[in-house]
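Let's sit down with a protein and look at its sequence and fold side by side. We need material for that, and I hope you will provide a protein of your own picking. Once you have written the record down, we can walk along the chain together.

***
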Amino acid sequence: MTDRPVAPRSRVHDVDALRGFALLGIFVVNITFMASGYPGNLVTDPAYSAPLDHAVHDLSLLFVDMKFYLLFSFLFGYSFTLQMKSAAAAGAAFEPRMLRRIAGLFTLGVLHIVFLYAGDVLTTYALACLVLFWMRAVTNRTALRVAAALYGLVLASLVLSGIFLDTSAILPATDVARANAEQATAAMLGGWGDVIGENLSGLPLLVMQAVTLQGPTALAMFLLGLVAGRGQLLARVRGDEPILRRIQWIGYPVGLTGSAVFTIGGGTGHALAVAASVATAPFLAAAYIATLLRMMHSPRTAWIRSALAPAGRIALTNYLGQSAIGLLIFTGIGLGAAGSLSPLETMLLALAVFVAQLVVSAIWLRRYRYGPAEWVLRWITIGRRPAWRGTPVETPVP
């Protein structure tokens, strides 16, 4: 077999654009952890305690934190069905291809953790995708029931922890946490050995978060995406469907109410506040999707899809690229800016980097089939070196 598809393939550009939008939200959250050791220790940097600093932090909690990884996870599950169709179109067995892809994703995630950024999601996605792979033939009803059960289990554990667990006996005192944050920031300003050591020191927290929160909720979203992908729900959107308006009318009030509780309750360091966010974040994520779909199919704002889709098409490269840029800006390997940017400056930097990624992604895809990371992952997936230049044979689908 060659790398050329046996028949024209359809690419759902709405999925690419939504994935590009999710990249922005993920980077806005991740960059705060790249920029300083304080967020990872659940304390505020005393150097940035002005009202504006708190306002920027609260706005991120309200509109961004814990919302966009759900959107990204849903799209991952949706794309899983596209991978199945791609294997069928190429006349290849899906099972070995997907298992190789999962192994490649996990390997990239491990390298990401060690050398770039400890807050990796690829390893969690790879392990959750093994479960999705095992469940790929279940009925839609079973997939939805399992997703609801997983989400309910996470919510119940958070509520019970918030009621009965004394976090003061687990979490360090504020002064100790700040001392730890200072040490973490100092390590970020060191060389490769210091940075790698700091990244590896966060593994226990990463594993705990993956097992108790991010892994189960991601798998639940995978399953929802699987069901949506089977029905090709994003391949037939016109933008004027009444359901999109209803999703907005329900999603924004419910989602923002939960986000407000999450923000007022203190954010990620408080189990009940996190429970409020987990319970309502899917509503806000759905409202974001509905809003973006309506905008992308409106003649006046259709340019948004054209701007976002290239970045989402090479999302893996851009995700890893964001971490590489953070490494070069904040650590001692590069400019050594850790701890020197305010929350507002950090937010503006994230927006500037994302805009640059939109431009570079569009230029790159005019000459190349895949982003660099996508090319490597495809090589692993199909078991042979894929063509590098040119564009894939495909039929665009709005």
